[in-house]
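QA checklist item 7 of 12: single-chain prediction sanity check.
[x] sequence parsed
[x] length recorded as 265
[x] structure emitted
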Amino acid sequence: MAPASAAAIAARLRARLDVLEQQRAGFGELYAPPHIITQIDAIKRELALLLATMLDDPSPLYEQLWNRALSEPPFMLLLGRCLRERAPANSAWTLRVIAGLAQLRGNGAEHMREQAAALLQANGGALEAAINTALAAEASAPNFRMRLFNLLPADLANTQMMNLVLSSTAPHDFGWDLVEHLLGKAELRLPISTPVAADEAVLARWITLHALHPAEQRPTLDAALARSGLLALGRIGEPARILRNTTPFIEDQRLEPALRISAIE
């Protein structure tokens, strides 16, 4: 939608809203007919969604809607739709909206849960960007991030956690906490490769998943890459972690001898 047409639509909505507000005022706040109140709320939601596409930074819009969204689920869904259109510059708002949608998905009415789940999936990219921004600024506590992952649908949470495990931006302790969390996800299919520019921390976390996850995908790994992971683990891991994580490679009779030997180098 071109900016001019969006502005024109916004102006028409604003004019219609002014008329309805005048009608409501004429009846008095307590006596306005329900259909007028319903129309006012509908226009406000439509106008908010339109403004989200027009503003360079819709953070003030999120702030304005947030308190109402906490008590009125339709407005939390509205924030999810606004987020789908354009994420605010302040990543904290993205994380708050995602958390609100996740809670609505778990505790809302059935039709609300379905809409919230769809919006969570649609906003996966915005969530990943917000998490990376928060990590870079150290603006989001690990406990909050783990609570958020626990609220999300399993497939979305697993994807986000795996992306962080394979990212060099993940703080050391948090990255390993994510590995331990993912090891409990028996249904998870592990990536058989790492990002091209993976550093030693990423390689060590990746090889640990393949060492300890019940899926046991070790025979599918590229031997050279697996060796790189084992060597990285040996260089940066603590002794107890190295022993725990290399033993499955040493004992796996399905693997080439050279790879098993590299686990003890």
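[x] summary fact logged: Residues 1-11+37-152 form one domain.
[ ] second reviewer sign-off
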